[in-house]
Design brief:
192 residues, alpha/beta, eight-stranded mixed sheet, two-stranded antiparallel ribbon, 5 helices, 21% helix, 26% strand
Length: 192
């Protein structure tokens, strides 16, 4: 069985999108080493994203470049779930599956499609919801050398919530992008 991964590129100051979901800042990222993007994309069967990001991508379609107009710069193919309270509004877009359900229900459905490939969450809010119910198996982080000052924070929980991570791997092929993979530090089950 594949894993549920939350993956993103962030600004140094902790944003995964600029104001109004602007993604033009990704051009400040270091280009990935040859084959990196394709390798990452090949592991993913299902992407789960949110309605705000979907709407922003549609609204900015004419402004986005090759890397930000499609998942993994067009290197990915698979099933994309859009979680929304108004799935009927996306009925005309056959490139996505709009769903009004919990993240746990979406992941269960995604697992039936993904098989031994991964499920990738690309929304900060949806990833936060998945963390609340302990459904994230892996965190994949890249950092672009840019400050944004505002936008969508990586992890935004009013009042705070601590989540500890354990380093699993360092992407040595892309050292300037600070590529890191983590797994959540889960409490050990009680001895018994």
């Amino acid at each position: 069985m594949g894993k549920v991964a939350w993956g993103f590129t962030a600004s140094i100051d902790g944003f995964i999108a600029g104001p109004d979901h602007d993604m033009s800042w990704l051009s400040a990222s270091e280009p990935n080493a040859e084959g990196t993007t394709e390798d990452m994309a090949s592991k993913v069967a299902v992407i789960i994203s949110g309605r705000r990001g979907y709407d922003a991508a549609k609204a900015q379609a004419d402004e986005r470049d090759e890397m930000t107009s499609e998942a993994y710069g067009g290197a990915w193919s698979g099933t994309e779930f859009i979680l929304t309270h108004r799935p009927g509004e996306l009925a005309g877009d056959t490139s996505v599956t709009a769903m009004n359900c919990t993240i746990a229900e979406a992941i269960d459905r995604a697992r039936t499609i993904a098989g031994d490939r991964d499920i990738q969450i690309i929304s900060a809010d949806i990833a936060r919801q998945a963390l609340e119910v302990d459904l994230i198996d892996e965190l994949q982080v890249y950092v672009a050398p840019v400050f944004l000052g505002d936008g969508t924070r990586i992890f935004d929980v009013p009042g705070g919530r601590r989540v500890d991570w354990v380093l699993e791997a360092i992407d040595k092929a892309n050292p300037r992008s600070f590529g890191r993979t983590y797994r959540p530090k889960r409490a050990s089950p009680p001895a018994g």
